[in-house]
Amino acid sequence: MAVDLLLGLQWGDEGKGKIVDVLTSNYDIIARFQGGPNAGHTLVFNGKKHVLHTIPSGIFHEDTINLVGNGVVIDPVIFKGELDKLAEQNVDYKKSLVISRKAHIILPTHRLLDAASEASKGKAKIGSTLKGIGPTYMDKTGRNGIRVGDLELSDWQERYRSLADKHESMIEFYDAKIEYNLEELEAEFFKAVEVLKTLTFIDSEEYVYQAQKSGKTILAEGAQGSLLDIDFGTYPFVTSSNTTAAGSCTGLGVAPNQIGEVFGIFKAYTTRVGSGPFPTELFDEDGETMSRVGNEFGATTGRARRCGWLDLVALKYACQVNGVTQLMMMKGDVLSGFKTLKVCTAYKYKGDVIKHFPYNIDPENIEPIYTEVEGWAEDLTEMSDASQMPKALNDYIEFLEKELEIPITIVSVGPDRKQTIFRDK
Ligand code: IMP
């Protein structure tokens, strides 16, 4: 069976967790392939909210295997925190969670390095979640990292020590005045590593290959969004992994010809957290309304998200890079009450009108060109069937489908599993 992908198409926080949860009953395995605890995937069901950071969003379904792939970076301390919360919910995670031996470990000093690097950048800071993601991927590509499989070796603590010592001298080099107590951080870390070691470690590429061969269905769950991709995002204001479709091949060991459906998730408007260019950003009442009604605060850091109109130039680019086959529009309910909606359909770029996403989208180069469409007044949050959707919402969706040339098959109208409208292809 081919592996299906589910990816965020904007700057993250599109609502991937909810849709994975909705789709999980169609799959035997849900697999994360990149990122780490910088992600915050929110699921709401039975009146309760659950936030996952590293653990795949299929974990609440009893019969689903949840796989943390080789492309993911794991902070044992945060991971343990997630496990503790699952235990409180009586989730039998030991049965349903497997971890790639090739996934890399985030050390306490990676987090400190992240903080030191950001502090030293001053105004040019990335706005990182400070979870140690960048430094851990740097050690991975620098061939210094410690992997999950290493924890099974007798000398792993010596390797840990020499890497942590090196990190400490690097922290000093930044001269960023980071206060920390490494002994305390290490005590917590080593305790969490012991918990991690009670889980099942696997050679995940072989596991995925055999699962595919035996007809198991697999959904690869992306984290962050395409515009945060290390290659195709708004560099340097990006994360440190490939968040796009190709990342699932390297992050799970799936061959490119084994990819099936590519589900692209986007919000009916746009948000971004952290620094970096955002052509359709709003600084007015409309932006404030989106922020308030959409409760636009980060699930991991609690930071306020910047809000703006939907950017079809950027969305088209993300669809192209990922080969999206089906779109899912999130938070349609947040736009209820806007008389007119604006959609960016082109950029004025250094005097020319362009329809593609260029190398540099800094504000001095880009001016968004908008098409205005009629809004809707109706509350969508109680709707569960496409026939209930107001005409203006249907028109908005059809306009987007025409521009993007891809069907929108799910419209989400609230955070709960039940607030999901399926549309025919
Ligand atoms: P890092 O991946 O924590 O280093 O953060 C790099 C950039 O990506 C920052 O602008 C973060 O705010 C952003 N970012 C990282 N993870 C997420 C996410 O899951 N959702 C939204 N933004 C994210």
From TrEMBL:
Descriptive protein name: Adenylosuccinate synthetase
Location(s), subcellular: Cytoplasm
Record: residues binding Mg(2+): D13, G40
Binding note for cofactor: Binds 1 Mg(2+) ion per subunit.
E.C. number(s) listed in UniProt: 6.3.4.4
Family in the record: Belongs to the adenylosuccinate synthetase family.
Functional note: Plays an important role in the de novo pathway of purine nucleotide biosynthesis. Catalyzes the first committed step in the biosynthesis of AMP from IMP.
Superkingdom, natural source: Bacteria
Pathway involvement of the protein, from the record: Purine metabolism; AMP biosynthesis via de novo pathway; AMP from IMP: step 1/2
Keyword presence, RNA-binding: no
Organism: Aestuariibaculum marinum
Keywords: Cytoplasm, GTP-binding, Ligase, Magnesium, Metal-binding, Nucleotide-binding, Purine biosynthesis
Gene3D superfamilies the UniProt entry points to: Adenylosuccinate Synthetase, subunit A, domain 1, Adenylosuccinate Synthetase, subunit A, domain 2, Adenylosuccinate Synthetase, subunit A, domain 3
GO CC annotation: cytoplasm
Binding sites annotated in the UniProt record for IMP: D13, E14, G15, K16, N38, A39, G40, H41, T129, R143, Q224, T239, R303
Classification via InterPro entries: Adenylosuccin_syn_GTP-bd, Adenylosuccin_syn_Lys_AS, Adenylosuccinate_synth_dom1, Adenylosuccinate_synth_dom2, Adenylosuccinate_synth_dom3, Adenylosuccinate_synthetase, P-loop_NTPase
Annotated residues for binding of GTP: 12-18, 40-42, 305, 331-333, 412-414
Binding site for substrate: A299, T300, T301, G302, R303, A304, R305
